[in-house]
């Protein structure tokens, strides 16, 4: 009986810590960086051409233009992602667009709200892309989960940027 109380006590503490996470951590932030051996204008143009996304995001099956503005800022797209047998519709909005310097994308993927702030810089003919990502959710349960998946999110974004680098340098 004493062992059962101890086990239940441990489980209660774990559950309490899990649900407390959402109260203390409202968003998950991380940074990813990659260097590409191409000029900044070429990298930025390839990165911001919406049709190219299929080349470096393997789960992306289709892109539909919802609203495309002349200055790019405010443009909206619907992305169809298929991972194994699960399909997900993600809305993407360009929040900021400064040619050859910065592009900020906001993604709404059901319960995941993600802002990707890509900053482009050039040094000695090499282009650096720095991603500053922020994940949050309208769902309290998802807010509790995100901090525990920070490494997974970071690795996925690094994988996409690595794919983009391979696509561009081929």
From TrEMBL:
<keyword id="KW-0808">Transferase</keyword>
<keyword id="KW-1133">Transmembrane helix</keyword>
<feature type="transmembrane region" description="Helical">
    <location>
        <begin position="7"/>
        <end position="25"/>
    </location>
</feature>
<comment type="similarity">
    <text>Belongs to the AHA1 family.</text>
</comment>
<dbReference type="Pfam" id="PF08327">
    <property type="entry name" value="AHSA1"/>
</dbReference>
<dbReference type="GO" id="GO:0016740">
    <property type="term" value="F:transferase activity"/>
</dbReference>
<dbReference type="InterPro" id="IPR023393">
    <property type="entry name" value="START-like_dom_sf"/>
</dbReference>
<dbReference type="InterPro" id="IPR013538">
    <property type="entry name" value="ASHA1/2-like_C"/>
</dbReference>
<keyword id="KW-0812">Transmembrane</keyword>
<keyword id="KW-0472">Membrane</keyword>
<feature type="domain" description="Activator of Hsp90 ATPase homologue 1/2-like C-terminal">
    <location>
        <begin position="39"/>
        <end position="134"/>
    </location>
</feature>
<protein>
    <submittedName>
        <fullName>1,4-dihydroxy-2-naphthoate prenyltransferase</fullName>
    </submittedName>
</protein>
């Amino acid at each position: 009986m004493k062992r059962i109380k101890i086990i239940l006590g441990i489980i209660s503490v774990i559950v309490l810590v899990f649900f407390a996470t959402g109260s203390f951590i409202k968003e998950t932030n991380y940074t990813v960086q990659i260097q590409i051996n191409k000029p900044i204008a070429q990298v930025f143009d390839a990165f911001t051409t919406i049709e190219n996304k299929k080349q470096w995001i393997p789960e992306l099956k289709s892109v539909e233009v919802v609203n495309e503005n002349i200055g790019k800022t405010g443009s909206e797209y619907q992305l169809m992602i298929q991972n194994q047998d699960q399909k997900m519709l993600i809305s993407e909005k360009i929040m900021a667009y400064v040619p050859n310097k910065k592009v900020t994308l906001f993604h709404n993927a059901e319960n995941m709200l993600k802002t990707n702030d890509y900053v482009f810089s050039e040094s000695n003919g090499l282009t650096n892309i720095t991603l500053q990502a922020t994940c949050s959710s309208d769902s309290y349960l998802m807010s509790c989960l995100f901090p525990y998946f920070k490494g997974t999110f970071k690795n996925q974004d690094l994988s996409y940027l690595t794919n983009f680098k391979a696509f561009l340098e081929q």
